[in-house]
Design goal:
Number of helices: 21
Radius of gyration: 25 Å
CATH topology of the largest domain: Nucleotidyltransferase, domain 5
Largest sheet: 6 strands, mixed
Strand order of the largest sheet: 8-7-6-9-11-10
Number of domains: 3
Strand content: 15-25%
Mean pLDDT: 88
Oligomer: single chain
Shape: globular
CATH architecture of the largest domain: 2-Layer Sandwich
CATH class of the largest domain: Alpha Beta
Structural class: alpha/beta
CATH superfamily of the largest domain: Exopolyphosphatase. Domain 2
Low-confidence stretches: none
Helix content: 40-55%
Number of strands: 14
Length: 497
């Protein structure tokens, strides 16, 4: 008998549901309903809007019961989470429906859009293999660029310059300015100048893909199409029309809500800016959403997250050989200590990210760099990871060096008791992996781990002198013993040169 999963995504004005056949991994039901028209000036949900959203979720639950769905997951968008009363809405939602909302941040939304795109192209062998593809994700408050080179993810960057945020500022400025389009274009150029300057290098773009842009979808996606190719001149024509038509004419011509009219122009100007900056003459517009990425079963490309972490390490000039060998050692220790740590595959991923970026603080100051690493990691984009996971990695990096997190982990209110235990376990493993290359000479050829009843022995195969590594390992092993209740020692094996 087939098993089904229901995935619900709540935005600030829309509730969407997909029911997925877990056997085939394919959606069998896809429903999206608006419970209110978006309002760029509304900082909170009114009680009426809350009730309508709750009623829509309850309708989804009835449909879910009709299908005999065994598992339901509820996600909320970053825009929704930023409403002033979002926490109260989440509490009411759980009380009425029994569903606990999982908040997505913008980095996750970008990740899931890109994942949805790659999944949609998986049956087309030529779609990405021979192309350089740039995926532009556009939400109300930000834009994201994901770059894929011949099918391989290279980087993802974002700018907090979205059509709604821009429209608010431009509206304030244009009260005394008649040439709104020229002002908006100039303002967008100024806001994106640093973004383009700081973007990692990329090759000539063969294809630009736009996802998440509601105005572009309303204008260009017609007759139930899921994809359309649009020329640059067509985008310019829409910009010209939006510049001169009154609100009612825009609503009638492009089927947009009244509240969406103020940022329809900024959305199209953002698209034009990107097309010009990357040198493309057409864009492929699709209707894939974050929800389409959330329902992808067993195919979440965690390699993209590791690749993004490598990009961060490179940007902060972390010594490549050291972070790569620490990643290798950390993974080996994690795998060979599985019997005692009881951590998950996701924890292994977080450990890998921490291994690659634990030294980013040295970019600021090599002395007490671990403290600066925590600050840097807390403030940057971590592609595909939740806000909680980002904070966990910042904490893991903070304590990878000399200090131990015993007292801080017990007193911090940022994490649940279970999260604190996970952090402590991952910190203890990373500290040992880092110690194994304390000399930065990558001396060890092979590692083996033996778990006994009274101690754990890590044996390093090498012809080099390991005196420094063994000294540092022994010091950092104290915290491991506190966490796991077993001493761990490093032994050397191999003839000296």
């Amino acid at each position: 008998m087939a098993k089904f999963e229901g995935v619900i995504l709540l935005n600030s004005n829309t509730a969407s549901l997909q029911i997925v056949n877990l056997t085939s991994g394919k959606p069998i039901e896809n429903v999206s309903k608006e419970f209110t028209e978006s309002d760029i000036n509304a900082p909170v949900f009114s009680s009426d809007i809350m009730n309508r959203a709750l009623e829509q979720i309850q309708r989804f639950q009835q449909l879910i019961r009709d299908y005999g769905v065994t598992e339901v997951k509820l996600f909320g968008s970053e825009t929704l989470s930023e409403m002033n009363n979002a926490v109260y809405f989440a509490d009411q939602l759980e009380s009425v429906t029994g569903l606990q909302i999982n908040w997505l941040n913008g980095n996750q939304e970008s990740y899931f859009r890109q994942l949805a795109f790659r999944q949609s192209q998986s049956g087309n062998e030529s779609c990405m293999a021979d192309e350089n593809v740039l995926v532009l994700g556009m939400s109300s408050t930000r834009i994201d660029l994901g770059y894929f080179e011949h099918g391989y993810f290279k980087f993802s960057q974002h700018s907090s310059v979205g059509p709604v945020r821009l429209a608010k500022t431009i509206h304030e400025m244009s009260l005394e300015v008649t040439e709104e389009t020229a002002l908006a274009s100039e303002f967008i150029n100024s806001k994106l100048a640093d973004f383009w300057h700081m973007l990692p290098p990329f090759n000539r773009i063969d294809k630009l893909v736009l996802l998440g842009a509601e105005t572009a979808q309303n204008v260009f996606l017609q007759d139930s199409k899921h994809w359309v190719n649009v020329e640059k001149q067509e985008v310019q024509t829409v910009i010209d029309n939006l510049s001169f038509l009154n609100d009612q004419a825009v609503i009638e011509k492009y089927d947009v809500h009244l509240n969406d009219v103020p940022f329809a122009l900024t959305e199209m100007l953002l698209l034009m800016n990107v097309m010009t900056a990357v040198g493309v003459n057409n864009v492929q517009i699709g209707d894939l959403t974050v929800l389409d990425g959330l329902i992808v079963q067993g195919n979440r490309d965690e390699n993209d997250i590791i690749t993004a972490a490598r990009g961060i390490a490179e940007r902060y000039m972390v010594e490549e050989n050291h972070c790569e060998i620490v990643l290798l050692y950390a993974n080996q220790l994690f795998d060979r200590l599985k019997r005692i740590h009881n951590l998950t595959k996701r924890d292994r991923l977080l450990l890998g990210v921490a291994a690659l970026i634990h030294d980013v603080g040295s970019f600021i100051n090599s002395q007490r760099h671990y403290q600066y690493s925590e600050e840097v990691i807390s403030g940057i984009d971590l592609h595909g990871l939740s806000t909680s996971e980002q904070h966990m990695i910042a904490m893991i990096a903070r304590y990878h060096s000399a200090e131990t997190p015993d007292s801080d982990l017990r007193s911090t209110q940022d994490f649940s008791p279970k999260q604190r235990i996970r952090i402590a376990k991952l910190v203890s493993i990373l500290r040992l992996a880092d110690a194994l290359d304390d000399s930065r000479l990558q001396k060890i050829e092979k590692l083996s781990v033996s778990i006994g009843q009274k101690e754990i022995v890590v044996t390093a195969q090498t012809a080099a002198n390991l005196q420094l590594e063994m000294f540092v390992f022994a010091k950092k092993a104290n915290f491991f013993e506190n966490v796991f209740g077993l001493p761990i020692i490093l032994k050397r094996k191999g003839k000296r040169i």
